[in-house]
Fold this protein.
Amino acid sequence: MTRTEPRSAILGTGSAVPSAVVTNDDLAKIVDTTDEWITTRTGIKERRVLEEDKAASDLARLASERALENAGLEVADLDAIIVGTCTADYQFPSLACVLEAKLGAKDVFSFDVNAACSGFLNALSVADMFVRSGRIRKALVVGTDVLSRFLDWQDRSTCILFGDGAGAAVLGVSDDDRGILSARLQTDGSYAETLYVRAGGSKRPATVETVENREHSIFMNGKEVFKVAVRSMEEISRRVLGEAELCVEDVSLVVPHQANRRIITALAARLCIPMEKVIVNLHKYGNTSAASIPVALDEVRREGRIAAGDIVLLNAFGAGFAWGAAVIRF
Ligand SMILES: CC(C)(COP(=O)(O)OP(=O)(O)OC[C@H]1O[C@@H](n2cnc3c(N)ncnc32)[C@H](O)[C@@H]1OP(=O)(O)O)[C@@H](O)C(=O)NCCC(=O)NCCS
């Protein structure tokens, strides 16, 4: 098949997590839980929590600078900054604009996409479109979330799951066969209230009552999320592989969203992909939402686990419900 339009490729990656570690045993001191329960139900052992005087843009800045360095590029080389996040520094403006100023970027356009845990995949897919259309040559794509600020630390069913982090990738025009071969996004808004923060938006702005009722933290029907996540990620993974004219046997590595080890193993089993090819780092960081895929991708890149020509499958699922997948030749 001849290619008529340019493809976009990942030129560099970077990541950043806070230094403060909160272990399962630490959580067992504040809610009625145990390391054993959290480990067997989720695979998570510890997570990182951002310092009080820092914001999501601080983590994003570090991850972005590392991605630019890995790509051998300068901020001045960027045409756009696209950030996947649901925990921006402010209600508005976008975190991308705050990040742009922190990086000292000029002559760029920057914006956020909010697809919760699928945020990075959505940002990557949008950046891919801009690059492939020829409108831009280089984009910084970031996934960052600081969900520790939106957790009810008295709710044992949610506070054990999440952590903070940021990951970034520099996307540019590919001059060879490398690059994003296929990317696909999907949503089902009928699940909007299955995983959400009830107050703080225009529907239910902050009041003394919403704060007292603890409505500014994550509410989730975990079982429902689990069920739909596995099914949806399997379907969309098969679709992107099909669009790239590849089969599951061609996949060198899967970098899935890191929500729950049981979700990941169920997905791998349904796709018939052995766990040796599936990246799991959630024992160290928990679910870092939009950051989870780029953080894991950066780790495997730094560990030298991705070779030239490898086919890497990314897949994500989160609030919305919003999910997506991408298949990339490195
Ligand atoms: C949240 C999740 C770990 C819960 O696991 P589960 O096996 O579904 O457990 P349940 O919710 O059925 O709870 C089982 C019991 O454990 C209890 N429990 C919940 N959290 C607990 C905790 N941290 N420690 C100990 N017990 C806990 C529940 O109260 C319930 O007790 P009960 O039977 O007396 O009512 C699991 O549903 C999950 O991971 N879902 C996906 C969530 C997710 O990934 N969200 C983000 C998507 S991006």
Summary: The mean pLDDT is 96. The longest strand covers residues 164-173. The radius of gyration is 19 Å.
